[in-house]
Amino acid sequence: MTQVVHEIKEVREVLGQWRKEGLSVGLVPTMGYLHAGHKSLIDRAVKENDRVVVSLFVNPMQFGPTEDLNTYPRDLEADTKLCAASGAHVIFNPEPKEMYADGFCSFVDMTGPTAELCGKSRPIHFRGVCTVVNKLFNIVMPDKAYFGQKDAQQLAVIRRMVKDLNIPVEIVACPIVREADGLAKSSRNTYLNAEERQAALVLSRAVRLGQGLVEKGERDTHKVMEAMKACINAEPMAKIDYVEAVDFQSIQKVDAVENEVLFAMAVYIGKTRLIDNFIINIS
Ligand code: PAF
Description:
The protein is of the alpha/beta class. The protein folds into two domains: 3-174, Rossmann fold; 187-277, Pantoate--beta-alanine Ligase, Chain: A,domain 2 (2-Layer Sandwich). 38% of the residues lie in helices and 21% in strands. It has helices spanning 8-20, 36-48, 76-86, 96-99, 118-121, 125-140, 152-164, 194-199, 201-215, 221-233; strands at residues 3-5, 25-30, 51-56, 90-92, 144-148, 170-174, 238-247, 259-269, 272-282. The strands form two sheets. A six-stranded parallel β-sheet has the order 1-4-3-2-5-6, with helices on both faces. α6 (125-140) crosses α7 and α9 runs antiparallel to α10 (221-233). The radius of gyration is 19 Å and the shape is globular.
């Protein structure tokens, strides 16, 4: 049975009991509308911890004023079923006022890894992510927390935050889960109509193309990016926000493929902004 709680004090009560029993705790932070990508995180958390908390919270602080906060899909009933099927123990589903009480004015902000990629087109996004993830870590105090590699910059940002602020949690990265035709799973895929859904395949095509070039020995990131951009631009419904190659730790641009390089993209398909990426590790 998965217990759904809405208040911080309820989470603390449950957690207090688990800690007394010496149980390990995994946290899977999400914004809900769970899909197979989230399920892979929850399944892994259930395998690796005695108890698992899944947070479902569409965090207003990480959405810009013109972004999709109000239309972001929500379905607590379906999410509860998915969590129960995976064996998660608690769903934490707070209201915004529970997380951000009147007068709220403390933030966790970051320079460096937030400056490029999504940080450029979504200037307040990572401040919102860092603040809410920090709050969730303080509320749940998990031993391990699970994040998808689809949001690769977010993963790098959270790893950096945990290191910089000495947060005692192990960050576990989980691979991208794709539809059978290659499209990376995302709650935002539900915004796409049939024609856009087809056009959105250009992202995973560009990923495969770039990956193939590097695997064949291309080490100039600009050549890889040019090929990926040409592939995306060939799709009339696609508009590139960015295609970049960055060091996966620092999220600073790199010219050569060496160490761990993240090739990341954000592409508009109609009004929907989708992201995808691949990581190459050459050591
Ligand atoms: O990746 C997400 O769904 C969100 O950014 C997160 C980590 C749950 C914070 O709101």
